[in-house]
Design a protein that fits this description.
By secondary structure, the protein is an alpha+beta fold. It contains ten helices and 13 strands. The protein is globular and about 70 Å long.
Length: 382
């Protein structure tokens, strides 16, 4: 088992990390009164809570996350970017990002930190469906943009794997590339499955064009909005006193709003109850064709299934991805021996995506992971 990204810093008390660098990122005049580890153990990061007094004597608390290595720099920077975007459009429902930067702990280990507003959460296991729907709908409405570009200005990460990098003109093309990344990450972790490979190719060649190319609302083309990107139950928290619902740990990008609901159909998380989607659709009715919305959500669920499997060797989510593909293929792919005909260009494009993406994957999984002393992705903090 390789080192975790944060192992180089776990040996250093959080108090030392705070005094070395993080204090300089806090408002001028801040005095740190206490610092301690906080939150559940994480495979890749160390997390803590900082108690301070501000220049005017008020008690202020901060949440800090930190890790070591060159990959950590990308992860921390990306998370800060997403947190900043979330807070700019959903001011009351996401912790305020304070700063991120280098954590100078010596000549051998280079660390990186992220500081956020500290929010005291209750022990509530599942968030209220009505509050979730209102929070997510507010985010999507506030971040709606008329520019028909889908993606992100910087690389964003699902776990420690880049899932979105750059812009595409259409949603089907971006989702196709997202799914291509997820599939190849999974293949690197779990090896090639000919059955999964065949289903994946049919999904790319038939299912994505069939379900995503004709999406409209009120007869108009669909415009992107910013999605959180990772809305499972572990990334929600309810304020212990006010009852305000918060979301955090975003890996967001500009997408179709229904993509956000992908995690609410996955049975290995606890938010797969129909109430969550039902409540959300009160704010944002399904796109046309409405009767295909459940199959679109099945299609979108392939990304989190395969990304989870890529982080957790041998996990059953790979089988779930295959089962979902096979269901969609049965529903939408012509049942004949010449189904590849007429789709050569589409398959060629997928191959081009794969070559480009595999370069990125190899760099992350071999060079950066080796540098950080961790080539084992078999544990994921969800």
């Amino acid at each position: 088992m390789g080192q975790r990204l944060s192992d180089g810093l776990l040996a250093i008390p959080i108090q030392a990390c705070v005094k070395l660098t993080i204090l300089t990122a806090l408002p001028q005049g801040t005095i740190i009164t206490a610092a301690s580890f906080h939150g559940e153990a994480n495979v890749w990061f160390a997390t803590g809570r900082i108690n301070t007094k501000s220049a005017d004597g008020k008690c202020v608390e901060y949440f800090v996350k930190y890790a070591a290595g060159s990959l950590a720099q990308h992860l921390i920077g990306s998370e800060y970017h997403c947190a900043e975007k979330m807070h700019s459009v959903a001011l009351k429902s996401t912790p305020r990002p304070i700063s991120w930067g280098d954590l100078d702990v010596g000549p051998i280990v280079q660390g990186y930190f992220l500081v956020l507003e500290f929010v005291p959460f209750s022990d509530e296991e599942l968030p209220d469906p009505g509050k979730v729907a209102a929070l997510v709908a507010d985010l999507h409405i506030a971040s709606h943009r008329k520019e028909l570009k889908f993606g992100s200005p910087i690389p964003t990460f699902d776990g420690i794997l880049c899932h979105v990098d750059g812009w595409e003109d259409t949603w089907p093309k971006l989702f196709s590339k997202i799914l291509s990344r997820a599939y190849h990450y999974d293949e690197l972790t779990n090896g090639t499955s000919l059955e999964l490979q065949k289903a994946y190719r049919l999904t790319q060649g038939f299912i994505i064009p069939r379900l995503l190319s004709q999406l409209t609302r009120n007869g108009k083309g669909l415009e992107p909005c910013f999605i959180h990107g990772d809305l499972w139950e572990g990334n929600f928290g309810t304020h212990r006193v006010s009852g305000q619902l918060y979301s955090f740990d975003s890996n967001g990008y500009y997408a179709r709003n229904e993509m956000e609901l992908a995690y609410w159909t996955k049975k290995h998380h606890n938010m797969h109850r129909r109430e969550y989607c039902k409540e959300y659709f009160r704010y944002f009715p399904p796109s046309d064709p409405v009767e295909e919305v459940e199959d679109r959500l099945r299609l979108y669920s392939l990304k989190p299934y395969l990304m989870y499997s890529a982080h957790a060797r041998g996990h059953f989510t790979r089988d779930r991805a295959l089962e979902t593909m096979q269901y969609l293929i049965t529903e939408y792919v012509p049942d004949n021996d010449s189904i590849q005909q007429g789709h050569d260009q589409r398959i060629s494009e997928i191959g081009e995506y794969s070559d480009e993406i595999l370069d990125t994957i190899e760099q992350v999984t071999q060079e950066e992971m080796r540098e950080d002393g961790d080539s084992d992705l078999s544990k994921r903090p969800e």
